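For the sake of clarity, the format in which proteins appear in this thesis is described at this point. The fold follows as a row of integers, each naming the local backbone shape at the matching residue. One such record is shown here in full, so that the layout can be seen directly:
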Amino acid sequence: MSRSQQKRETMKTPFFLSQCFLFHFGFTQCLQVTGFQVTGNPPLIDVPTYSLATKDADGKTGMNILTYATPISIRPDRIWSVGLYKGTVAHENFSKTGEGVLQLLSPNHAKVVKLLGGSSGRDLDKKQECEKLGMAWVLIDEDLPDLLPDCSHYMKISRVGDLIDCGSHDLAICRIESMLVPDDRDGDASHKDNLNTGKLRELGIITEQGRVAD
């Protein structure tokens, strides 16, 4: 490369950075002029609240609270994406077995959200603590983990491929293997029967950041 070419290449970087700065500054100014403001806070979106039930190698059920679950495809299989918080029993179990049951919670499950989402199964017996709260776990099939009673919907899921590292969470792409609903719901899992994050914020159970409140 000639000296003149080197000089031109050297000049490109600061020119590019200056253009980026001007674009960012100009965009910010434009938003402010047109009645917008720049914010680092994501919008508060009300999403369904789930509990993921998993089993460890000894057959013991682990249960958590999960709100990062989204359907992404329907054919040829129903595929969902599920975000698993690292370091939890649910993450450990699911990373090993690749199987679990995603339980769509009802409003009457609000009383166990703090227990299931704010504590670890390594520190206490969640099954026993749920029973104290009047939410005794049930076993409907020996091949499945214990489940919460009276959920709006139960979906047996299996992981497709490897977990994807997303920082605080790992992303699991999952196939819906089967779905169950309680007899008294007759297949209905409408939004009015589901527990969502908006209701949990309203009750003071979770914060605006989505964490379990102290």
